[in-house]
Amino acid sequence: MHQQLRNIMTSNVFTINENQSVQEAAAIMSEHNIGSIPVVNDNGQMTGIVTDRDITLRATAQGEQAQTPISQVMTAQQIVQATPDMDADQAAQLMAQQQIRRLPVVENGQVVGMVALGDLAVDHQFDDEAEQALSSISTPSKPQK
């Protein structure tokens, strides 16, 4: 029997409006110890996702101001997302293929949850799926000579 994402996803997901600032996104991430936030428009429809890496590379490293709108640094094209009825194996395969660690769960355009690689690993039932995804996502680092 395959477990649906609706049964393992985190349903208390913090979102940010596309007009809010990079500083506001970073503050939410810091306060809640999270690495990504789905970005929504005024109607609550998901329009993108912003990660701590996006903020670092697309804002901070480029000298952008803290008040830069999230819409300027978020990933907006080809947003990888799941549905609540997708099973854990499908989600792990998608995460591995797309090289991502966090997967927004969307229903009717609205963010209803988030599945992280850790969610798959917490339940021993999904050890194989989590291991498969992690091995595809993470490349071991090598010391520089």
From TrEMBL:
<dbReference type="InterPro" id="IPR000644">
    <property type="entry name" value="CBS_dom"/>
</dbReference>
<feature type="domain" description="CBS">
    <location>
        <begin position="9"/>
        <end position="66"/>
    </location>
</feature>
<keyword id="KW-0129">CBS domain</keyword>
<feature type="domain" description="CBS">
    <location>
        <begin position="74"/>
        <end position="131"/>
    </location>
</feature>
<dbReference type="InterPro" id="IPR046342">
    <property type="entry name" value="CBS_dom_sf"/>
</dbReference>
<protein>
    <submittedName>
        <fullName>CBS domain-containing protein</fullName>
    </submittedName>
</protein>
<dbReference type="InterPro" id="IPR051257">
    <property type="entry name" value="Diverse_CBS-Domain"/>
</dbReference>
<dbReference type="Pfam" id="PF00571">
    <property type="entry name" value="CBS"/>
</dbReference>
